[in-house]
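Subject: design request, 397 residues
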């Protein structure tokens, strides 16, 4: 989860009408050094460079032709500017966060013609126009419903299977989120602190498993999942973590009924928004990496569930969501790089094994009992998985 000031909208890659949208990926080269396998009649991926500075983040070039694009982002001395995102309208299409000075990252996405914006919150000039022009491929009739180039029946069928499977997974998780949140907020409103504490971690798992999807809808994610330091005016702080503080730090639910009602309403809004979304294979791959980045960059510190120390519920949910997304697109990856698919499978197993030692009954141990050395091991395992997984978006794009 990023801060509100840094936009906190991490992309969902929704393809609506002519817009084809993709999710974050932190690295986009394949195991043989390519940047993806272009379909018949299509050019290889175009590279767009973005340099984060205190002044801004102008993309170079600022106009490209439709197709697979890799955005390479580098922070050159911008302490307050640590994120670049590509947006179309109110939807964040691609993003790279947590780039402190000297760091760089990438994300890949397949784009159709249209007008986009590159944003870099906190820069002197924080948005720049970006244009995708039509070419012979994008202007033709070969594009699939999800925005990908479906040049053969077999490829089209594989893409359709992946997008349908992931859509159904997101839909199922949101349905469970609605039900679990209702149980949690009912306990909050009844003043039953013990019951609310017991329901908190399990309810959040269904949110954390699809967090990159949820984060794309403007201010909805901050409303549901902002931490205390994400909100300048604490009187406007809502969502899970506001109630977490009431339960574990304040030990009082007085005055929290409106916050519980708002959380219930916001989760219902999320359910309505995801019903008709379509996800590119690259979108799904990028989302998998975003989920792992959530673990290795932020959750491993313990800052997420700082009052309840239920962080391992979130860890497992992030990894489980990434695992599901990868499973859905793995048949596509095996066509171009079966060795990479096998490596990713092996490293998912390593992460799962590392987490299993912290299981306790139907839940997880208190994260405050996990020492710094053990936390570093978890982060290293997740990073070792994220590295090959970050290569997938450009290969299945």
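Subject: RE: design request

Done. Sequence follows.
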């Amino acid at each position: 989860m990023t801060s509100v000031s840094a936009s906190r909208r991490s992309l969902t890659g929704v393809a609506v009408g002519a817009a084809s949208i993709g999710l974050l990926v932190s690295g986009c080269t394949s195991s043989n050094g390519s940047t993806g396998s272009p379909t018949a009649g299509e050019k290889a991926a175009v590279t767009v460079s973005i340099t984060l500075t205190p002044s801004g983040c102008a993309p170079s070039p600022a106009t490209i032709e439709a197709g697979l694009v890799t955005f390479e982002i580098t922070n050159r001395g911008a302490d307050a500017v640590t994120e670049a995102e590509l947006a179309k309208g109110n939807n964040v299409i691609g993003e790279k966060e947590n780039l402190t000075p000297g760091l760089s990252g990438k994300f890949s996405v397949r784009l159709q013609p249209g007008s986009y914006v590159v944003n870099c919150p906190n820069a002197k000039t924080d948005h720049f126009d970006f244009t995708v022009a039509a070419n012979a491929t994008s202007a033709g009739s070969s594009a699939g419903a999800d925005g990908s180039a479906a040049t053969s029946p077999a490829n089209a069928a594989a893409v359709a299977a992946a997008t349908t499977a992931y859509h159904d997974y997101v839909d199922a998780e949101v349905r469970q989120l609605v039900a679990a949140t209702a149980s949690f907020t009912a306990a909050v409103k009844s003043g039953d602190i013990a019951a609310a504490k017991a329901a908190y971690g399990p309810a959040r798992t269904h949110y954390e498993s699809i967090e990159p999807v949820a984060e794309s809808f403007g201010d909805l994610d901050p409303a549901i999942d902002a931490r205390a330091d994400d909100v300048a005016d604490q009187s406007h702080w809502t969502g899970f973590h506001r109630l977490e503080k009431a339960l574990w730090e304040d030990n009082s639910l007085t005055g929290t009924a409106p916050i519980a009602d708002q959380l219930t309403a916001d989760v219902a809004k999320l359910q309505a928004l995801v019903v008709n979304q379509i996800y590119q294979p690259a979108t799904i791959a990028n989302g998998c990496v975003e989920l792992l980045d959530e673990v290795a960059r932020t959750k491993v510190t313990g800052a997420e569930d700082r009052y309840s120390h239920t962080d391992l519920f979130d860890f497992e949910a992030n990894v489980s969501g990434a695992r599901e997304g990868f499973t859905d697109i793995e048949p596509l990856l095996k066509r171009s790089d079966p060795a990479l698919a096998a490596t990713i499978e092996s490293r998912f197993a390593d992460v799962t094994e590392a987490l299993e030692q912290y299981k306790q009954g139907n839940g997880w141990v208190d994260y405050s009992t996990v020492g710094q050395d053990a936390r570093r091991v978890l982060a290293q395992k997740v990073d070792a998985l994220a590295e090959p997984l970050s290569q997938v978006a450009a290969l299945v794009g």
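Residues 1-42, 140-150 have pLDDT under 50 and may be disordered.
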